[in-house]
């Protein structure tokens, strides 16, 4: 994803300007990668990292290789530009199918719960629906992976609590930051990542790709307007008193004079009443 600290919007198309903006690995995706690497260490699995984006995304893939991924695929083409979550999930689903053709059956797909720039949380479930995968979202703990029974048991965080769920592979999981602590790359890993050349796939590598479902053509989401919120003027007033009680009384009077009690309750005599 583009570094959110340097995001710019094209005023004509209302899409992100990616040229000249550095790419970073999405924070939640790193936790998904970490869990995949832990399962690799326990079971001998193979970890393939995939991203759709412009050529500079190669740097982020090198980071993933340095952490321990086996191979990395960059899906890049001008035809993919301007994709919303629907078009993105379509291309990534096609990519996962091609990964299966190249390196064998995919048992588990890890995604972050959402991206830091979009916050929709739709791409992971969208991939699962397109590939007919079981999906476990908002995963905070992978309790057990049984390659013999081909089952996965996880802990999930919900709005009103938590639950433990077990399902069968193949499965897609979306990761929360509570899932694990992301490792630091080792020196040999950093060297390997620096030397690694990601595999690059374009639209030409997908002969059955429906071009009406990619890029802006395949994106029904329309951004009507974008703008930067105006900075709000903030004023402050310094209050003092002979002691803490006098200062508190002065603060209460100042709040009362500014009609704050009408919104937050009422304050008098140094005590707050709701």
Automatic annotation (TrEMBL):
- The source's superkingdom equals Bacteria
Q: Where is the Electron transfer flavoprotein alpha/beta-subunit N-terminal domain?
A: 13-210
What would you give as a GO molecular function for this chain, any one?
electron transfer activity
Write down the InterPro entries for this protein, in alphabetical order. ET-Flavoprotein_bsu_CS (IPR000049), ETF_a/b_N (IPR014730), ETF_b (IPR012255), ETF_beta_N (IPR033948), Rossmann-like_a/b/a_fold (IPR014729)
The coenzyme or cofactor needed here is: AMP
Q: Which PANTHER family does this chain map to?
A: ELECTRON TRANSFER FLAVOPROTEIN BETA-SUBUNIT (PTHR21294), PROTEIN FIXA (PTHR21294:SF17)
| Similarity section | Belongs to the ETF beta-subunit/FixA family.
Name of the protein described by the UniProt record: Electron transfer flavoprotein small subunit
Which organism does this record belong to? Xylanibacillus composti
Gene that encodes the chain: fixA
